[in-house]
Structure formats: structure tokens, C-alpha cells
Amino acid sequence: MPQTILFELRDNIARLTLNRPDKLNSFTEAMHLEVREALNQVKESTARVLLITGAGRAFCAGQDLADRKTKPGEDSVDLGDSIENYYAPMVLTLRSLPLPVVAAVNGVAAGAGVSLALACDLVIATKSASFIQSFAKLGLIPDTGGTFFLPRLVGTARALGLALLGERLSAEQAAAWGLIWRCVEDEAFKDAIEELVNTLAIAPTKGLAYTKAAINSSVGLLLDKQLDLERDYMRELGHSNDFREGVTAFLEKRAPKFTGT
Question: What is the mean pLDDT of residues 216-239?
């Protein structure tokens, strides 16, 4: 039974809640292992969308520094080890899942918690939420993909400002800058999340997965290679059940019933 997360799969929606509210849902090794197991379950399941959020008043405060202990005879910790073994695999798994991943940022996101949210496909946040690149205050760099996501989402100037100064960025400003998809009033947050994940759960999942893969690959490909990728994906999707259903529903002037295949 998980001790640091909550996880359920119902109606094609997988819901993963970071559940250490007394520690602002900061990561420990145990949490990493439980999140990894949950993501493996998502891979093998019928889920058509994954929702990630936090319990209590925070989304995720990043790494629990108290969980990083030195070994006997050492006076420092190999931080690269935790990146290689925990944070990097988590981000790569989220980016490669063949379904949309939604981060519902219910409160503060700090450090690796920001990067976790940005590794998801859509980020929706409460108006009272905030994003803090807290690494600078510890003499570190934005990890968990932070140095990758930040400049691509908000540009180099703003990325450097956030990373070097470690100032709190409101959810409203994050949305205005394009760091996140949407900011909503706190009282409307729950309904907005449900509307979003339920919409995605009945959408043409294979097409969404290929869209996600194509957009993610575009940062490393030249235009001609990206056009080749689009050709290959469109060729395959043209044979999908969802494409046939979408065309039929359009011609019959009715709502489509996608199966995700």
C-alpha cells in the first residue's frame, strides 16, 4: 500500500496525488519509488489521461533535503545520483507516456516541483498557486529538466531571471508568460480539472499521443525531418479507428465516440 502517494484508475482517468502534505509533498526516495510504480501501472492500464496533483496546500516543494543523508565518512551528497536514478527517469517517462498528462497545481510548486509540473503536457493552476525556482538559494541549478523547459516556454531572458533570482512567480503571471496552460480562480479549480480530464478521457487518445510526441520531438529536429515525422504519423493515424469514427460522425452530424485506438 503506497505511503506517500494516492493512486486510482477509474473511467479511463488515472489520478496520482503526491501525499505528504505536512512536508509540502516534497520528494523522498520512497515517494520516487511509489511514483515510479504508479507510472508503470499507467503504462499497462486502459488510462487515456493522467492527472497529477498534490495533497493539502502545496503541489510539490521539490526535494526533501532531510531525506538526503551523507554516507559514513562523507561530508557531501552526490546530487547527480538522485538525478540519474530518480528525477530524470520520472521526467522521461512522463514525456513518453502515450496519453496526455495534466498537472493540477493546487498550491506552491518549488524547485523540482516546478519542473515536475512543466514535464506534464498541460498545467492548470489555482490563482493562489505560485512557482519558485528555489535552486539559486541553495547554490544549485534548476534540475528535473528545468534548464530545458524554462527557456523553451518563456524565453532565455525570463528563464534566467527566474533561475538566477529565485523569485516567486504567481500563477496568473505564469499563465500570462506562457509557462502554464491556464490559471483559474480557486473556487473553480476542482470543476475546471474535472472538465479538462473528462474531455481528454473521451478524446481520440492515439491522435493526442502522436501530437504530444511530434511537438516534443520538434525541439531537436530541422523542418524537413519534422515534416517527415508528420507524414509518417499522419499515414498511421489515417488507418486508426478514431479517424474513421471522426469522419463518420462529422458526416452524420453527431458527436463522435472515440475508443482511443
Answer: 97
Question: Do 234 and 178 form a contact (C-beta atoms < 8 A)?
Answer: no
**pLDDT of 75 strictly over 90:** no
pLDDT at position 12, please?
96
Give CA–CA dist 188/194, Å, rounded.
10
| pLDDT beyond 70 at 70 | no
User: If you average pLDDT over residues 180-206, what whole number do you get?
Assistant: 98
Cell output for 42: 499507467
Q: Going from the N-terminus, what domains does the chain have, and what CATH number goes with each?
A: 5-201 (3.90.226.10), 205-251 (1.10.12)
Residues in contact with 76: Cβ distance below 8 Å, sequence separation at least 6, in sequence order: 70
Give the per-residue pLDDT at 78: 86
pLDDT at 72: 61
